[in-house]
Amino acid sequence: MESETKESTRLTRMETILRNQFAPEALTLTDVSLEHAGHPGMTKGSKETHFRLQMVSSQFAGKSTVENHRAVYSELAPEFKKGLHALEMDLSAP
User: Fold this and answer.
1) Residue 55, exposed/middle/buried by CB under 10 A (0-12, 13-18, 19+)?
2) Which of 84, 24, 33, 21 is nearest to 54 (CA)?
3) Shortest CA distance to 41 belongs to which of 9, 88, 85, 6?
4) pLDDT tens digits for 46-88?
5) From CA 88, how far away is CA 29, in angstroms rounded?
6) 59: closest CA among 7, 87, 12, 22?
7) CA-wise closest residue to 26 among 66, 67, 55
8) Contact 75, 17 (CB under 8 A)
9) Which of 5, 41, 61, 75 has the most CB atoms lying inside 10 A of its own CB?
10) Residue 67: in which H helix or E strand, if any?
11) How far apart are alpha carbons 92 and 51 in whole angstroms?
């Protein structure tokens, strides 16, 4: 019997949500949690808390930066409730 091919991580869950909701032409999501080690609130057990997102989607065309960020935050709200702490975003239209 084969084991699961890939454990569900915050990174994979977020990528799935972003691909399904924004149909991006390009998407790079990077876990940068280790860059924040030692910051208040970060413990040895803190994992997958800080991410950097670069995404190009036609859904961002004609919208402000704030509108685009709100759209992404809205889709990822469940992950923020589960421990996602910070998301640095570079969003653009093709």
Assistant:
1) buried
2) 24
3) 85
4) 577 889 999 999 999 999 999 999 999 999 999 999 889 889 9
5) 10
6) 22
7) 55
8) yes
9) 75
10) helix 65-75
11) 17
Residue 33: what pLDDT?
A: 83
More confident residue, 90 or 36: 90
Helix (H) or strand (E) holding 16: helix 10-22
CA distances from 76 to 4, 15, 79, 82 (A): 24, 10, 5, 10
Copy the structure tokens of residue 72.
């992404």
Amino acid 5: pLDDT: 40
- The rounded distance, in Å, linking the Cα atoms of 41 and 59 is 34
Identify any residues that bridge with 87 across adjacent strands, giving them in sequence order.
51
Residue 55's alpha-carbon distances to 6, 17, 52, 88, 90, in angstroms, are 23, 13, 10, 11, 6
